[in-house]
Amino acid sequence: CVVYPGEALKSAKNAYEGVDALYYKSDTDWNYVGGYVGAVELIKTISQHTGYTWEERPRTFELTGTVNGDLQVMAGLGGSYNSLVYTPVPLPAFESTKKILNAKNNDILWESGRSLDENCLPLSVYVTGDSFRSAASCYLKETFSDWIITSRYYLDTEDLVARKPDVFVYMIVERYLHELSV
Q1: Which end of the chain, N or C, is less surrounded by CB atoms within 10 Å?
Q2: Long-range contacts, stretch 143-147, CB < 8 angstroms, 24+ apart
Q3: pLDDT of residue 42
Q4: Dihedrals φ, ψ of 161, to 5°?
């Protein structure tokens, strides 16, 4: 099944007062607000297809700083176009183990863990995706009892098959859809 959160993202633009956008203004990725909206659409779909009941817990976000975005860095614009960072309140509850490929860029090969939320869905999920997974992953981590999240560039299909997750999620942004044929 395909989950495309476009309409949900459009609807959410006005729903979060005090939050500038669902994307960082100087970056191509979702911020934590956009990640929340995308994750909710994914979680709703998974719960419907697996027969589990899941209730959305609306989030609030607080301004916690600024960040250089990828567009800003590529254009050499310095700090004048920093994006505001809004963090979810409260922070999602989970425990995890990470394997980092490149410490300089915090490039995560994979991360596995479990939710600490007693109301999580009793499902194991294996999520792979591009950079958009980052902003959505904290919500997925608190929602599912067990999870593995990888970059699509480091997806180990043998590991995926061996783990036998209840759900496999392949997140991909539109600009990379041509890669699905591979």
Answers
A1: C
A2: 143/39, 143/43, 143/54, 143/115, 143/117, 144/115, 144/120, 145/114, 145/115, 145/120, 145/121, 146/112, 146/113, 146/114, 146/115, 147/112, 147/113, 147/114, 147/115
A3: 96
A4: -65, -40
Structure-token match 């729903």, residue found: 15
Strand-pair partners of 153:
none
Please choose, from the candidates 154, 163, 162, 111, the residue with its C-alpha nearest in 3D space to the C-alpha of residue 134. 111
Whole-Å CA distances, 105 to 21, 100, 108, 109: 25, 9, 9, 12
Percentage of the residues of the chain whose pLDDT score is greater than 90: 39
- Per cent of the chain over pLDDT 70 is 92
**Mean per-residue pLDDT over the chain, rounded:** 86
Task: Please check whether residue 168 is in contact with residue 149, taking contact to mean a CB–CB distance below 8 angstroms.
Answer: no
**Alpha helix positions (H), the chain:** 6-12, 32-50, 70-75, 132-143, 157-163
DSSP letters, 36-48, are HHHHHHHHHHHHH
Q: How many residues comprise the chain?
A: 182
Which residue in this structure is represented by tokens 């956008």? Answer: 21
Closest CA to 180 of 113, 118, 130: 130
